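Attaching the record inline, Q. Sequence:
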Amino acid sequence: MSQDERTIQRDRMRFIKNTQSSGLCYLGILFDVFYFVSICKSDVGTYYYTYMIGISIVYNLIFMLAAFLASEGVKNYKKEYSYVLLVLGIIQFIRIMIIPMQAHSAVTLVNNVETQVMQNGQFIRVIIYLVLSGAALITSALINLNKCRELNEHLKTLNEQGA
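Structure, as predicted:
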């Protein structure tokens, strides 16, 4: 790519939205919803009827609101929202250690039969959902940080040229 093409591409950033980062945020939200639905549709007695699931429900609501807000922020090249996305992405990886790990190693009685709370298939699926969600959010944040840096450098050159 020539220098002129690169300059034009950077100049276009002033007028177009950062749909790549925004789309990755939506993807992160979608994988979180898949995770949450997989957990909530599990029917293993009363294992999931605890305060931990209540906290998880509240967290999921806050997560979706924060991720959606951040998606709107990164769409407009706002650097601060990248840090929100980084934190949300890291928390998605930490969440693997909470409900999925505990439920996978737990056994409960269902109709007087010992049953593993989370079978291997569901365990692998929810881990994949959380990893994909976290990776999408972190990637979104890194792309936005890079684009913000490029746009700021371009705006500085325009200011220096008096444009």
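The chain has a mean pLDDT of 90. The CA atoms of residues 18 and 69 lie 14 Å apart.

More tomorrow.
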